């Protein structure tokens, strides 16, 4: 098959590589010329994705994968087009379709008959049918279900382990017609491999959910569940901390029973997915009080954690407070909705002097985020762990000379390592 992949980001490029590795001819489209040049050079444009570099080095020279900024080189006569353009949420928590609208308009201009179009970007329920179908038809002059088929098939992978997750999890599809769904099943079965999953109640593989709306909701449901679960864990942790209870013992005890799956509390919920997708769900279901309350509870955690610091240290006025971790989670160089922003704001609001350390970022990159860089070994009055980088597990007082309080927002350390220093962890007095 000839396959076009629109947007060669941290999900789109591994997808393009996966498709090409199954013997298909793949052309990737991206607006960033630098990304296109690196891909065509066989070089990964972003480090950290397992096996991506070795696969690029094999597939690009073999002529199975190339990149372009021009839709006209990729879309016409394609058997399938997979679109993974980012969808953003604006300051009012409303979806901003700007990039996707632009990409869809370009796709429509060059769309030819007999093409399967699959959107993989997570969407509010109903978007595939109510927004993308009319946009593609208007821009192409073609009729969905007759001249081309449109489906929604959400990406369900984490950056850093995309190829592993593509094998591990069922590929969900939902079409606007039975014929479209059938084409999507045929397509994804030809480009993906699946691990044996005896724990599932049906065979791992491509699962047809019956409609685009069901497929859209499935992605929102699985991610919103995590936000709600974490919100509940954070509520439990705040109560436990006030009442001298170790929430981690409580969670371990509760989860020893097979119907309980309480997540871990922490300083923040960040990334492109978990803090965003509940808002996409709420866009269509504003009466979802549980979802809204959990999102609010999680959004409040950075300020709550700095409040723990203030309670342990005292007045923060003039105190040099190190925020450990700019990334939203350990081992990932990404700051989307990271707790670092609210944590720094909370420190500054209390009169403290916030400085930021992250082993994955240079001083220049930290400064570009608007923060003052910190280096281990420099004087500090207090520290707060914001990202669970592996390097932070080995921190000791000598790394933070002069420290008086250490607030472990990710439970990467233990009180024993901080002898003579006030140590606090969320959910434990």
Q: Characterize the biggest β-sheet.
A: 8 strands, mixed
* H and E string: EHEHHEHEEEHEHEHEHEHHHHHEHEHEEE
Q: What separation lies between the terminal Cα atoms? A: 60 Å
Low-confidence stretches: none
- Global mean pLDDT: 97
Strand order of the largest sheet: 3-2-1-4-7-8-9-10
Range of helix content: 25-40%
Globular, elongated, flat, extended or rod-shaped: what is the shape? globular
Structural class: alpha/beta
Q: What portion of the residues fall into strands of 2 or more residues? A: 5-15%
Distinct helical segment count: 15
Number of strands: 15
Radius of gyration: 24 Å
Tell me what you see in this structure:
It is a single chain. The chain is of the alpha/beta class and 429 residues long. The protein has helices at residues 12-21, 33-40, 52-59, 71-74, 98-110, 127-140, 162-168, 178-191, 212-242, 247-254, 277-284, 289-299, 301-313, 339-349, 363-368; strands at 2-6, 25-29, 65-68, 80-83, 88-89, 95-96, 115-119, 148-152, 171-175, 206-208, 320-324, 353-357, 382-385, 405-408, 422-425. Helix 14 (339-349) links the parallel strand 11 and strand 12 (353-357). Helix 5 packs across helix 6 (127-140), helix 9 (212-242) packs across helix 12 (289-299) and helix 13 (301-313) crosses helix 14 (339-349). It starts with a strand and ends with a strand. The model has no long low-confidence stretch (mean pLDDT 97).
């Amino acid at each position: 098959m000839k396959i076009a992949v629109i947007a060669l980001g941290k999900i789109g490029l591994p997808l393009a590589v996966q498709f090409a590795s199954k013997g298909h001819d793949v052309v990737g489209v991206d607006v960033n010329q630098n990304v296109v040049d690196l891909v065509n050079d066989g070089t990964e444009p972003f480090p950290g994705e397992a096996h991506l570099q070795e696969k690029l080095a094999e597939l690009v020279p073999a002529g199975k994968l190339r990149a372009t900024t021009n839709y006209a080189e990729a879309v016409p006569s394609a058997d399938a087009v997979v679109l993974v353009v980012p969808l953003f949420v604006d300051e009012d928590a409303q979806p901003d379709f700007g990039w996707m609208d632009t990409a869809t308009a370009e796709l429509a201009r060059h769309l030819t008959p007999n093409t399967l179009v699959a959107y993989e970007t997570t969407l509010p329920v109903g978007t595939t049918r109510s927004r993308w179908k009319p946009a593609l038809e208007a821009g192409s002059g073609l009729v969905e279900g007759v001249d081309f088929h449109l489906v929604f098939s959400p990406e369900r992978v984490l950056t850093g382990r995309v190829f592993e997750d593509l094998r591990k999890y069922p590929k969900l599809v939902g079409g606007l017609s039975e014929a479209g769904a059938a084409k999507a099943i045929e397509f994804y079965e030809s480009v993906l491999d699946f691990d044996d999953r005896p724990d599932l109640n049906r065979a791992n593989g491509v699962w047809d959910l019956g409609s685009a709306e069901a497929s859209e909701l499935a992605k929102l449901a699985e991610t919103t569940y995590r936000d709600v679960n974490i919100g509940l864990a954070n509520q439990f942790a705040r109560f436990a901390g006030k009442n001298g209870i170790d929430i981690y013992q409580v969670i371990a005890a509760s989860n020893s029973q097979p119907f309980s799956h309480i997540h871990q509390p922490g300083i923040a919920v960040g990334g492109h997915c978990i803090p965003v997708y509940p808002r996409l769900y709420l866009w269509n279901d504003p009466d979802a009080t549980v979802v809204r309350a959990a999102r609010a509870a999680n959004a409040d955690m950075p300020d709550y954690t700095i409040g723990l610091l203030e309670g342990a240290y005292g007045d923060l006025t003039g105190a040099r407070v190190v925020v450990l971790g700019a990334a939203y989670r350990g081992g990932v160089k990404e700051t989307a909705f990271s707790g670092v922003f609210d944590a720094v704001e909370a420190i500054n609001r209390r009169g403290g002097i916030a400085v930021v350390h992250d082993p994955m970022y240079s001083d220049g990159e930290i400064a570009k985020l608007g923060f003052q860089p910190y280096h281990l070994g420099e004087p500090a009055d207090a520290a707060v762990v914001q990202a669970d980088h592996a390097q932070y597990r080995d921190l000791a007082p000598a790394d933070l000379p002069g420290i008086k309080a250490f607030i472990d927002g990710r439970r990467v350390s233990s009180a024993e390592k901080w002898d003579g220093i006030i140590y606090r962890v969320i959910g434990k007095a």
